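agent: user wants the full assembly modeled, not chains individually. Plan: 1) parse entity lines 2) check alphabet per entity 3) run joint structure prediction 4) return tokens. Steps 1-2 passed, two entities, 471 residues total. Proceeding.
--- entities ---
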Amino acid sequence: MIRRRTVVALLLGISLSLVACGTSESKKLQVAAASSLAGAFEALGKAYTAKTGTEVSLILSSSGKLQQQIREGAPYDVFASANLSYLNDLETSGDIAASSVRIYAEGRLALWTKGVEAPADLAALADKKFEHIAIANPEHAPYGTAAREALRSIGLWDSLESRVVRGSNVRQAMQYVESGNAEVALIAHSLALHGGGSFTLVPSAMHKPLQQGIGIVAKTKKTAEAQAFLDFLVSEEGAKILLPYGLSAPN
Amino acid sequence: MNWDPLWLSYKVATIATILSFIIGVGIATLLSQTRFRGRELVDALVTVPMVMPPTVLGYYVLTAVGKNSWLGQTYESLTGGHIAFSVVGCVIAAFVGSVPLVIKSARSALERVDPTVVQAARTLGASPLRAYLTVQLPLAAPGIAAGVMLAFARALGDFGVTVMVAGSIPGQTQTAALYVYEQVAKQAPAGAMVAVLTATAIFVLYVVNSLGRRSDMRYG
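--- prediction returned ---
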């Protein structure tokens, strides 16, 4: 009996100490960012850590999914959405600190292929040789929504819909092409620039603007650090890092 | 609420369960009736999908049946279609996670049958195959049935593998689990479908428990 108790105590001790190890990581700044920002924010985070010593850990997902998580109290400090409206909604509901939201760039949609030349324009997708067109889920991922709007604007959505496969975020849409299962993807310019392969920009007039915004999560205990990160992002230094990802301030 | 994803899920889970039943009992028979080197390794290999992260499994499946894979190309030359982003892909996704449940339950049910009963059939002149089919397999049936029910529940609820290979096309490959994920992400109601999925799972587990009691009674 005593031996069993010792084992239970030991196991409890081990699990508690593991939990304790986990909490020591909370010195990091938790940045929830749209999947389209993967490369850009990794570069930004690295530069920021080098400059300030504050570690940045990225949580990448579709903006809609992240918005939902923040609404449910996810312990993030900063939220970078691929679409301003998700941030505005959270600001209205009090989940994003009032007037902390900044717009720092306008996102662009790109037609992206791997191994072959990207089609010249969206209309080319009508060709049946594009058996599967990968996009992010338009219900909760801004680049997916923009892709649907763009295809609708030229009256192609209804005829293409059955060939459109939806990734749960824009990175997964890319993976469908990388694994050779889809011929073409409609993704963020920021990812296409660094994804290898070939891409064509989709005219921004074909969809609602993809305003890239960032805000501070209202519940964070690290408001000052979060504010410093935002300041860094909109600084000249930050802009220089984001430029190679096609993310520049709208003029 | 759009109920199409639920019907698709029931359809996919039913086909996947039938496949799991046939292939699972086949493999369980091999593992329980024959002795060969590496038998336990085979058991481990066919069981590992049960404990692997579903996304890792999904990656394997996508690589194995994708357009550039040997399987994918064979399938294309036979049918002209693709496995990825099709109902067939959904079925395979559901099958991979559920077949180990049938193999595990069927193997243990077959091995739990009292060997003296099988020997009695043999001394009365039954061939090994006949003794297996008419004595051992029927005695193991409740245990196998419980495994098949669990496989159905698992197939119905698969998310991780399906999300990698199905492409979530509404009306085509968007299963109930993918639909619920999408609904939650876009902050739309999902409660009704969640309730039906939960009720199905509880019902299945209830039946599994009843089958377990019956099989205990059989083994005495």
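agent: reporting back. Residues 108-206 of chain A form a domain with the D-Maltodextrin-Binding Protein; domain 2 fold (CATH 3.40.190.10). The longest strand of chain A covers residues 210-216.
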